[in-house]
Amino acid sequence: MRQQTFYDVIREQGIPRRDFLKFCALTAIAMGLGPGGDEAVAKALETKPRLPVLWLHGLECTCCSESFIRAAHPLAKDIVLSMISLDYDDTLMAAAGHQAEAILDEIVTNYKGNYILAVEGNAPLADDGMACIVGGRPFADQMIEVARHAKAVIGWGTCAAFGCVQAAKPNPTKATPISKLIRDVPVVNVPGCPPIADVMAGVLTYIITFDRLPDLDRQLRPKMFYGQRVHDKCYRRAHFDAGQFVESWDDDGARLGWCLYKLGCRGPTTYNACTTIGWNDGVSSPIRSGHGCIGCSEDGFWDRGPFYDRVVDMKQFGVESTADTIGLGAAAGLGAAMAAHAGATVVKRMLDGGKNKGNEDGEG
Amino acid sequence: MRQTAYREINDHEDISSIYIYEAPVRVWHWLNAAAVVALAVTGYVIGTPLPSYTGDPSTVYVMGWIRLVHLAAGHIFAVLWVMRIWWAFVGNSFSRQLFIPPVWSQRWIDGLFYQVKWNLFLVSKARRYSGLNPLAHVTMLVAFVVPSALLVITGYAMYAEVAGHESWLYALFGWTSHITSNTIDLHTIHRVCMWVVLAFMVAHVYTAVREDIVSRQSMVSTVLSGYRLFKRD
């Protein structure tokens, strides 16, 4: 029997070809493909068999799944869930218990080297992984086992990519990013807390369309979505260059849509597509709704607070000290020391001078 | 006699002056000072910006100009360092003294402690040196040369973020992201180093003036004329 393609599935579900082509065009644009990109996407989805995807959940909050099922295009829920053959996802699947776990073995055996492993969350390693047990076993064991024969591993969200909140200092469960545990299989990080739904869909579509992984940067993020900083494409950037900043919430600057830099916006140090793609069908994004970026797609963002200050805490020097408080403190201390030193120098010279000149103009 | 940079001028020696700082080093010193001041002022207000300007952003470009001055001064700072290091190779022995602390010399180590004592008023006579005294030498290395290097590296690493991951700057400085996975750390390191250099600058000016007065050797005029003058008492 011919294996079902994505196109077969959506036609079965009664989705018209016109909508299918719209999706292809939108996805091609989101991925930055040139003219003809939409046709390449359409052709791939019409001819290539659906790719089995195993979606494991480790130490996480399921916000990635929540984001994913809200992929922006009107048909995205159907499209994305039919484009791949989502064979295992303990949050969404009907099967449970041994029945569910059996699917993992089945896919790994039948599709060796030809399935995608998507991991949401990460693996805690402390206490033999007791903080996250799936099917009676530590999650780390399950993940490493399933990853071994995968075509590629996608790390959904900042949890999988960098550890996220559960890896915040002191990281009691030793939550560990998946790229540090998986060897010999390429890993794609799709950070964000959660990642943008259309970015997640775009990464999957790219892999299916071109049968290879997208170009990745040093932190294994797809360049097409994480190649630029939020600051670079921010629609408030003109106000940054003008030096027009929101000084406090609800002031005139906030009403005029000025730059949120002074209220701690992490746009200049955050790589993500929020300002271009937007959230919830492009309705808005954090900055567009008047709140600075907190840098949720960056490594260790949770340990670099406060979110409402540009000059961030340096925990090495105690709670709530920043480069500026330390610098000003050191400068003040140094100034006081030098004033005392200069005073002592003057006094000493006067005393020495008194000694040299004898009693003539002594203590007087 | 071949000039060695690190040399104590003994009390019995009757030397009135030594030519230490050649013109390129003196020019470097003052241009560098100007660049550091410009960088610190603009850098401070980039991290904690000035009160907002009103007006249409099509005509207002305050932060843009501040950044331009900062970036331009930063390039000058870096180029000056390249020039200074080059001069350490081709200049006189004093020009490379800064980069090579003679830690193997027992007398130098002793001089370091002696200089600390001198600054704590525990000894009454300053030792006289042809080039840098050991304490000044260590301070300059730790509180100026090292943070300057970090400033240049983190500065260009941040500029690489602006220029984009396809830029030659990122090719040269992108490795920093292996150390500071979150680029906000670059900003933090950059700012801490700024404070260290500012603190150094304050101490540097104070010490130079004070030593000039009390240590039997010239400081302030030396970096203008190049000649260090010595007094016997």
What's the shape of chain B?
Answer: elongated
Strand content of chain A: 5-15%
Number of helices of chain A: 14
Per CATH, the superfamily of the largest domain in chain A is NADH:ubiquinone oxidoreductase-like, 20kDa subunit
Integer-rounded radius of gyration of chain A: 28 Å
Strand order of the largest sheet of chain A: 2-1-3-7-9
Helical percentage of chain B = 55-70%
The first-to-last residue Cα distance of chain A is 115 Å
- Per DSSP E runs of 2 or more residues, the count of β-strands of chain A stands at 9
Tally of DSSP helical segments of chain B: 9
Radius of gyration of chain B (CA) equals 21 Å
| Integer average pLDDT of chain B | 90
Most extensive interface: pair and counts? A-B, 52 and 48 residues
Uncertain segments of chain A = 358-364
How many strands, what sense, and barrel or not for the largest sheet of chain A?
A: 5 strands, parallel
Order of helices and strands of chain B: EEHHHHEHHHHHE
Strand content of chain B: under 5%
- Structural domain count of chain A: 3
Write a brief structural summary.
Chain A is α/β, with parallel strands linked by helices. Chain A has helices at residues 6-12, 17-30, 37-47, 63-68, 76-83, 97-110, 139-147, 157-162, 197-210, 223-226, 237-242, 252-256, 274-277, 323-356, and strands spanning 51-57, 84-89, 116-120, 123-124, 133-134, 137-138, 152-156, 175-176, 187-190.
